[in-house]
Amino acid sequence: MAVLSAWRAARVTPLGELHTPPRMTAALLRLTVQIVLVASLWRGLYHATGTTAGLDRDQAVTYAVLAVLASRVRELDQYSGRDTVLQHMHFGTIVYWYLRPLPPQRYYALRALGEQVYGFAWALAGYAVCLAAGVVRPPGSAAVAGVFALSLLLGQLVMYYVMLVIDQLCFWTLRNGAAVMILIFAQNLLSGVYAPLWFFPDWFITLSAFLPFQATLSVPLSLYVGRIPLSDAGFQLAVQAGWVVVLALFTRLLWRRAARRVISQGG
């Protein structure tokens, strides 16, 4: 029964995608256009130069394309399934999360796991196509591939807890739309989605080092393209793991306090 409940919770958002073929087609088209445009942009930028900010053209293109693919892992439409914390708070149905046999924190984690596995399947398929087409280059060695995989896993855990904090904000504000928009912009900027952090001023890089966003994407991709050497991988992985522990403890505290504020709003 516990396994069945976990399976049902994990497939909530992916089922919404799979049962809506036009949405999947649009996602595929958008992802394809993003990859083509990003690869063309960085190739154009490196047309007249060899190495910039410690990256050559192939490294820069690989980094940029992988950033697009990695962003797909959590880019799912939760609103269509009406299962976001914001919607439940607005309609008053959040109370049912606390009446089910499955604790709300476990349900939230299982649902996020299903979303990430589904998004990872998209990213992996896109990576295979880009690798076969020569758009991205393979990792430098098996050790680099292993460290990258571990770092990517830790990065996704950090991202999960960051998104959880924003959703938990609804228990105090009822709405988190503005916070989500700010988070998405900050995440894309400070994690290196728009551009590798090495292109930014030193003060910006120093500031981002004190925030968790860099650990979500910039570190894994930097390890993959070789911008961070394997000799420094241990420290970077420790920083990522530290953020996971800190955010896990913080969100656990918020779950306890949130339970005291559950109300039926609207509905």
Automatic annotation (TrEMBL):
Q: Which Pfam families match?
A: ABC2_membrane_6 (PF06182)
The alphabetized UniProt keywords are:
Membrane, Transmembrane, Transmembrane helix
Q: Tell me where the transmembrane regions lie.
A: 117-136, 142-166, 178-197, 237-255
* Keyword Metal-binding in annotation: no
Question: InterPro entries in the record, alphabetically?
Answer: ABC-2_transporter-like
Instruction: Report if keyword Phosphoprotein is assigned.
Output: no
What name goes with this protein? ABC transporter permease
Its source organism is Streptomyces montanus
